[in-house]
Write a structure and sequence with these properties.
The protein is about 35% helix and about 25% strand. The protein is of the alpha/beta class. It folds into 3 domains: about 190 residues, FAD/NAD(P)-binding domain; about 80 residues, D-Amino Acid Oxidase, Chain A, domain 2 (2-Layer Sandwich); about 40 residues, no CATH class. Helix 7 packs across helix 8.
Length: about 375
């Protein structure tokens, strides 16, 4: 058996965020993952200002482009540009981002091991044991950062915990002709309860479809039709699907030594489909809770609940906003692109600020046009 202070399953942004903080504080931490890095990952790869602030190091070496405007589209001919004086989003390739973050995390002192399938997780009052076919790991704490299909969540919460749900996204790399539009685009027209996106990455575009509802069928044919409609006969490749994990705002606080972060813990945003900030923030919260517990007698699960409370509140507001926004896409587009709220929209998306104020303002705007809307929406 191998014993550590903390085991972290999953070496993506959530796992690396937790491991970097713990290793930098001098704790013995082991990252476990089934994949070799770099590995392909379906993700638009946009890092908002709030994500860039949350990271403990600069990712400038892997930033392909930056954008200070978002083009929001609805029906054909309906478009508005939301502009900022500074960059809203830094655009990366997720494969490069994950490999870079892992490299930085290992340099901070964390260890990494590739593992096979996890067979069992057992928790006692003093430690957690994780068993694979050929190894058993022991630690005082365990962090599950292993994505939407989390084996850690399955073994600790059951196959289908009632608080957890999934969204879905499908993306491809597109290589358009020279001179084609390379704006950062959110298109509300092609998908119900979601959007299409176009993110420029220098030598290619990342184009995809996202829905926060699994009842909306998104497949390669539909994505191919959308790419053909936007870019004609442009070459596309590497179509890849990815589920997103929602529900952290409804997850119960339980007295365990195991913490679920990122998509595993449902920290993706259902309104925007953005998951990187929630992954980083929840991973760092788990690290801070464990660090405090290792230095004192305070239960780590209580600290984790307190540290993630603001994030969970934002996700609760976002889930409410998603139900209204995607249920009323025409009104949603008018609210989103109204001159009254453009600045607030940029701040909420890029900085993570004034989300409650934005949600309330958009509701007031919506009721002015749809007074019959239920008060609880």
């Amino acid at each position: 058996m191998e014993r550590w202070e903390t085991l972290i399953v999953g070496a993506g942004p959530a796992g690396c965020a937790a491991a970097w903080d713990l290793a930098s504080a001098g704790h013995a931490v082991l990252l476990l993952d089934r994949a070799e890095f770099p590995r392909h990952k379906a993700c638009a790869g946009g890092l908002t200002r709030k994500s860039l602030r949350a990271l403990r190091y600069s990712v400038a070496p892997i930033v392909r482009e930056t954008r200070s405007a978002i083009v929001v589209e609805s029906h054909p001919g309906q478009a508005a540009s939301l502009n900022s004086r500074t960059a809203i989003c830094a655009l990366t390739v997720r494969e490069e981002l994950d490999a870079f973050c892992l490299q930085k995390t290992l340099a901070a002192g964390a260890q990494f091991s590739k593992i096979g399938p996890i067979l069992a997780i057992e928790e006692t009052d003093n430690e957690v044991q994780l068993r694979t076919a050929d190894r058993t790991f022991r630690a005082q704490f365990l962090i599950g950062a292993d994505g939407v299909h989390s084996r850690v969540r399955q073994l600790t919460c059951g196959d289908a915990p009632p608080w957890f749900r999934r969204g879905f996204a499908l993306e491809a790399q597109v290589f358009p002709s020279a001179g084609d539009n390379s704006d950062l685009v959110f298109d509300l027209a092609p998908v119900r309860h979601g959007y299409g996106w176009i993110f420029p990455k220098g030598d290619h575009l990342n184009v995809g479809l996202y829905s926060e509802s699994t009842n909306e069928r998104i497949d390669r044919v539909r994505l191919g039709d959308y790419i053909a409609m936007r870019f004609g006969g442009a070459r596309s490749e590497s179509a890849t699907g990815q589920f997103l994990g929602f529900g952290a705002d409804r997850a119960p606080v339980v007295p365990l030594r195991t913490f679920l972060v990122g998509d595993a813990g449902g920290f993706a945003d259902p309104l925007t489909g953005e998951g990187i900030h929630g992954a980083i923030a929840s991973g760092q919260a788990a690290a801070a809770a464990i660090h405090a517990a290792l230095k004192s007698s305070r239960p780590a699960y209580r600290a984790f609940a307190a540290l993630t409370a603001p994030l969970r509140q934002d996700l609760r507001l976002s889930a409410s906003g998603a139900r209204w926004f995607y249920g009323n896409p025409d009104l949603g587009f008018r609210a989103l692109t109204s001159p009254l709220f453009r600045g607030a929209v940029i701040n909420a998306y890029a900085n993570g600020t004034k989300i409650a104020a934005l949600a309330n303002a958009i509701r007031r705007f919506a009721r002015a046009f749809a007074p019959e809307m239920p008060a609880g929406v």
